[in-house]
Design a protein that fits this description.
The chain folds into two domains: 77 residues, Ubiquitin-like (UB roll), CATH 3.10.20; 94 residues, [2Fe-2S]-binding domain (DNA polymerase, domain 1), CATH 1.10.150. Helices cover 35% and strands 14% of the residues. It is built from seven helices and five strands, in the order ββαβββαααααα. The chain has a five-stranded mixed beta sheet, with helices on one face. Strand 1 and strand 2 form a beta hairpin. It is elongated and about 70 Å long. It binds FE2/S2 (inorganic) cluster (2 copies). The site of one FE2/S2 (inorganic) cluster has 12 residues, from loops. This is (2Fe-2S)-binding protein. GO terms for molecular function: 2 iron, 2 sulfur cluster binding; metal ion binding; oxidoreductase activity, acting on the aldehyde or oxo group of donors. Pfam families: Fer2 (PF00111), Fer2_2 (PF01799). Its cofactor is [2Fe-2S] cluster.
Length: 188
């Protein structure tokens, strides 16, 4: 019998939602398990745990990643943003506000991943049409089938108001009662 060797642990230092965290993790610990376990950031959801559903999406240095396929040691020195870090105090992130305006969730299980994925999509700057938004959000599954509203909500923020937005949201924008409308009118 080979002598027992304790599991290897690695010291990492990263920023999570603006807070610096230092800890030791096992080499096989995923970012998802680190977030939901020791850090108690349970907004990030575990769906398939195999990179298929997008429920675990978070941002690492502003880039959307699947935290179930990302080892915690890989985030040493990086900036991680979870759904808990999107809002600024009581001020919702524009995507969160748009999801409410478009009724873009039902059970809400996929919503944290959808929001982080949409934030990453906005950072990428590749979406020019509603179809682009649908395609670029296709890695995030919604078992409640809220795809129409989700795409509209994301498009409202990423593309701005327009025919891709739902009628209710578009009217709200015209009336100046949405986040984006407020910004647009402030600029005007
Ligand atoms: S839990 Fe990570 S992709 Fe499904
Ligand atoms: S709102 Fe239920 S899975 Fe998307």
């Amino acid at each position: 019998m080979p002598p027992y060797a304790p599991p290897s642990r690695h010291a990492i230092r990263l920023r999570i939602n603006g807070t610096t965290c230092e800890m030791e993790v096992e080499s096989w610990t995923t970012l998802l398990d680190l977030l939901r376990g020791p850090l108690d950031l349970t907004g990030t959801k575990k769906g398939c745990d195999h990179g298929q559903c997008g429920a675990c999406t978070v941002l690492v240095d502003g880039v959307r990643v699947l935290s179930c396929l990302t080892l915690a040691v890989m985030t040493d020195g990086r900036e991680v943003t979870t759904v808990e870090g999107l809002a600024q105090g009581d001020q919702l992130h524009p995507l969160q506000q748009a999801f409410i305006e478009h009724d873009a969730f039902q059970c809400g299980y996929c919503t944290p991943g959808q929001l982080c994925s949409a934030a990453g999509l906005a950072n990428e700057g590749h979406a020019k049409t509603l179809d682009d938004v649908r395609e670029l959000m296709s890695g995030n599954l919604c078992r409640c089938g809220g795809y129409v509203q989700i795409a509209q909500a994301v498009a409202q923020v990423v593309l701005g108001p327009g025919p891709h937005a739902s009628e209710v949201a578009h009217e709200a924008w015209i009336a100046g009662t949405t986040v984006n409308a407020g910004k647009a009118k402030a600029k005007a």
